[in-house]
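Narrative summary of target 7.
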Amino acid sequence: KPCENFQSAREQFLSGNNTKAAGFLKTASAYLRLEAARADAMSRVAIENSVRDLEQLASAVEKGETRAYSELQGIFVEAHVALASHHCVQSDSCCCQLEKDGVNGDVTCVCRELNAATIHLEQATMWRNGELAELSQSILETTPVTEMHSMSFSESMNRQSKDGNRSQFLSTMKQRIGSLHQKLEAFTGRKIQLARPSEIEAFGGMDLR
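Modeled conformation, tokenized:
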């Protein structure tokens, strides 16, 4: 995962070990390349741009041409933003599919993607603010989505036969996707297209804290 690799690259770079730092950057780049393969067209462009930037940064670090830590910092922010946007779009697609599939749908997809999007946006914020981007375990432990992502919760949702319960779950997911969507657009200053923009934007206007 890029979270851990970015951390390790930072530590090695600040320690003067450029070869190891470049190795972690290359590993992170390989992960992003895999994610780009399953992204929609718009998300793919942003992720591929981050792949290119990471590969160029790895080369420069390895050659000793990068001396400013801020160069790493900026590229890490962009990579996390690209991944957060990608997972946000994917969570919306999963939500659409779950709505179509009804009681036979898989709830883990939307939970997994929304969790990932939340983590990457948090990491982007921490890197941008110059904070030490702690590994994501604390986020995983505190986010309400974690409960939904758990196996027991997923299994219980899949056992539900009453449409009212599933409708409540879908409503909650749409609210969280909408909230995250608005935060991403505020962070980037760019529009991020979702599968159902008018519906999601309406949910995003709710206070979900």
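Confidence is low (pLDDT under 50) at residues 135-153, 197-209.
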